[in-house]
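Dear Dr. K.,

Following up on our conversation at the group meeting, I've run the structure prediction for Cytochrome P450 from Conoideocrella luteorostrata. I'm pasting the input sequence below exactly as I used it, so you can double-check it against your construct before we proceed with anything downstream. Let me know if the numbering doesn't match what you have in your notebook.
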Amino acid sequence: MALTLAIWSTYSIVTITLGALLYFHPLSRFPGPRLAAVSNVWYAYHWLSGRWPWAVEDALRKYGPVVRVAPHELAFFTPQALTDIYSPHHKNIEIFVKTNFQNRGKDLGGLIWEEDPVRHREVARKLSPAFSSRFIRSLEPIVHEYMDYFVTQMKDLGADSAGVPLVRWTNWLAMDMSADLAWNEKMHQMRDRKDSVHLDALLSFNSFATVLQVFKRFPLFKPLQYLFAPFGKITVFSQIERATRSSVLRRIEQRGKTEHVDYFDHILPVDASLPSNERELVHIGSVALQVMFAGWGPMGDLFYGSLVLLLEHPESYAALAAEIRRSFSNYEDIVPEALSHLSYLHACVEETLRMLPSNLTGLPRISPGAAVDGQYIPRGVSTPVMALQFLPFTHATQYT
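The predicted structure tokens came back this morning:
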């Protein structure tokens, strides 16, 4: 009797919950997979399978530009949603704040992962001069140094019948360059033809990072997430922490005495106070590491993607080569100022960014209770905006 009552009680609770999520939840008016409306299983399955962007693309084509992809999450696919979610600020503070999607623990938010909009604004304000045209121009010699070395290596290796492991080389190029620009560190991955501890750890933990963010939605099962950890690489993770700490301490000691300017000059200027405790040091290290990663991931994708797309489309490669050879007689003449009029080169870069966006997570934000693309989104709803190249736009003359 007691068992029967327990079964019926459980059945009733589940039925009522499912009914509420499907028909009475504030997001019930939005289309999407029914499984996604009642649980995070649909979300988890597609993330863990590595097919999340394509699953969302299929949902877009089936349901339209706003899709319910989890009980409390809506994915948007319109330019107006992009503006409504990421542009609104009040006194320079974000209104749609970050979710815990990339939360890695206390004081590790740094810049990119920082959920507190006030603290994020403080860090961003310090770094903003580092992205001025003047400062970027001062870094051009370092960029040329690494790019020239890469081109030389490609010439030497290109004749090899075995071919070139392009993913590896573009990763090495991007991270070697980024580490030097971030905090004057020479990783020498291209020279040694070997992954640094940073790159090894990042590539090894990519899939586990996905597991960590998925299990945030299943708190009862969270202890199981460690079963998916790459145990053979656990020591690498501790090595990257030690290496980062060592690099930050070394760079702090070198303030005002570096070989060239770098982004760390803005993270902790020469006239700024030294970190007074472990918490401040961890924060500085987190910001510096994220700046380095930001220069590696997107740029590595761009280098690799542009080369692959050009190789896959010989006619485009021929058109780009012709434009460059018409414009320059010598390799040494190729400098940023001289590239501004190369329209086909710009088109190739923009098409690469469209075809291979560096971030396909949707960069979710939490709605404060506001309108997005003309529709009111309740407070607390996660609102990612997926890459717009998935949008099947068919109205070519709409803006003419």
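Two things stood out to me. Residues 108 and 363 are 18 Å apart (CA to CA). The chain is about 55% helix and 5% strand.

Best regards,
J.T.
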